[in-house]
Amino acid sequence: WRTLLFLPILIQSIPNPTSTQFKECGLTAPSTLCDPDGIFTAADRHHLDHELKMFEARTRRPRPWSMHAARTQMTCDDKGITPAIAVVRRGSAEEVDAIIEDMKSNWTLDASCNNTVFLVFSAEETQFSVSRPTNLSRSSPLQAYDVAHFLRRQGKNFQSGNYGTAFTTILQQTWERAVTRYTRWNSTHYPNPMMGEHRVCRMSEASTVCDPDEILDEEERLDLRNDASIFEYLTTNMFPFNTSSNVSAFCQSRGYTAGIAIMRNVEGGTKEAIQSLARNLLKSWRLDERCKKSMIVALAVDDRIFSVVKAENVDIDIDAFTKFFDAEAENFHQSEIKAALANILKRTVQKMIETSGAMGETTTIESVEDGEPKVTRDAIERLLDGEEINSTSIDIGTESNSTLIHLF
């Protein structure tokens, strides 16, 4: 938990529109929208208030019609999501975190089922925080990282001051995502981006990255694909090679190939299930059949489990990956999935360097041969040194220490 240093000030400045303070939020009746600084126009506030009030009905679980079902009281398994939005003119990352904690404590949204999503946005700093509880009676496809992606895609509207258009789009995309039903993948059913199914993996061409549930946005997927290419490039000519002495010079100099499979859920939701899926992908993706210097990183984000499997000639202790994932707890906590996976690749390279004691000549940009991927020096430095973590806060659940890692 972050220390809420700014909370006493912000509680006074953020009214509660679900009670008698709706006028201070710019509304004419109780609402789950608060715009105390007048970021939206009056027409935008009216429209967004209507959209928020329709959201729960739009996201209810479909029920087969019958006279008996019509008489049955709705349960938490059927109930839709109740959203709340607070928009302020100024607010740092710590301040929007403080606001969202206050909203969760004091706003009345869904006391019986707690099927809610809270969103706070500061206009001038373009900071936001999203909270989505995980202790629901049924698994919901909508997660905090979904809302975060929809927010990030509205950068142009935010820059031009079109806040009403931006949030109308965000709400529409959010409720559409909330009613989407996703596949629970298993060891025999997951797309292969190397064998003609790259579009199912949301990639424009053959790749070692697959994200069929669109957990990442398009730019993040492309960045992760590039990171995987850089990973293979950086691990070329790395010694010692953990295999017999009669291996060809080609295989000794070849880099390690990393396949990354991201999904919302794996069928069964267990460690054994994700391990079985990862093992099958290592066989079916055929990343490096000749040299067997490949590995698969499989992550089921909503199930909060992962597995890493490697071919026989990958020279790294598999237990090291548990430490790598643990080290990325803050990024997972903030739903920065792409940043976490990129850093895990970086840590793997660093561990291999420590193990080998040296790297080959092909780790310099000048030695890249024709026909090999051209990797810029700043791209290599980005992978090795890491990027500044975005200060956006994404809370993926308060009932599980708000972290993926603690549940792996």
Characterization of this structure:
The protein is 37% helix and 12% strand. The protein is of the alpha/beta class and 408 residues long. The chain has a 5-stranded mixed sheet, sandwiched between helices. A 4-stranded mixed sheet has the order 6-7-9-10. The chain has a two-stranded parallel sheet with strand order 5-8. A hairpin with a 4-residue loop joins strand 9 and strand 10. Helix 11 crosses helix 13. The protein is elongated and about 75 Å long. It starts with 6 loop residues before the first helix and ends in a 13-residue tail after the last strand.
Write a concise keyword list for the protein shown above:
408 residues; 11 strands; four-stranded mixed β-sheet; disordered N terminus; single chain
Shape field: elongated
DSSP summary, beta strand count: 11
* Average of per-residue pLDDT values: 79
The proportion of residues in beta strands is 5-15%
Distance between the termini: 20 Å
Count of discrete alpha- or pi-helical segments spanning 4 or more residues: 14
Organism: Pristionchus fissidentatus
Protein name: TPM domain-containing protein
Signal peptide: 1-20
Keywords: Signal
